[in-house]
Amino acid sequence: MKTIEYHSFSEDVVESKNQNCKVPESYQWVRQERWFRLCSAVLYQIFRFAGILYCKCFLHTRIKNRKLLEQYKQTGFFLFANHTQPIGDVFLPAWVSPRRIYTVASPANLGVPVIGKLLPYLGILPVPENLPQMRQFREALDRRLEEKSCIVLYPEAHVWPYYTKIRPFSDTSFRFPAEADVPAFCMTATYQRRRFGKKPRMTVYLDGPFWAEKDVHRKVSQAHLKESIFACMQERSRQSDYEYIHYTRRSD
Prior knowledge:
Elements: E1 2-6, H1 34-57, E2 61-64, E3 77-81, H2 88-96, E4 101-105, H3 115-122, E5 124-126, H4 131-146, E6 150-153, H5 175-180, E7 184-192, E8 201-210, H6 218-237, E9 245-249
Parallel strand pairs: 1-9, 2-8, 3-6, 3-7, 4-5, 4-6
Antiparallel strand pairs: 7-8
């Protein structure tokens, strides 16, 4: 069994070659050029098909309650997930969502060799680094919700491969569904021992919808939404019965 040591839950245990990649000042969160939109649509379908094969054949993935999202394909919604697969987490939401996905992710992903250049076509929404970028980012979120798309977020922020628990996360990203008054769902990856082979089977649970409380202060609403989803993901994580990678906190 492989062991990974860590200092804190906010630590990166998987780093790319360009981990400190920043969002360029000229970056556009929404591209309107016809050629870009055509390339984006074609590449998305190719990657979605390849991603389903990858999840099925290499991650041995099963989806539970997938039809849940079908009921909300006529409205935009948010999907929160635990972050346990460096590659699989790129593809998995596109498999389960009945609508096109757009994923809020660290700018470091733009620096990943080869695939980093393709991510804008596949729907990455890099986390902004200043106020002007934040305005563009929020406008992009609003536009994708108007298009009835699925906005994907990994509130744990850092990918920990095959981690079987739910790491603490803040309520910051939960302000988006609270302000937009749209449903939120959670997707929890769990891991079970397979009869053959060392790698586990991955069972993914979908739950929701979760709605932000109305007639209360926004911070109260987003905190309640976060706690509801966190509790659900913690409960689902108990379905894991196999530790493929062991994580241990360093004492130094």
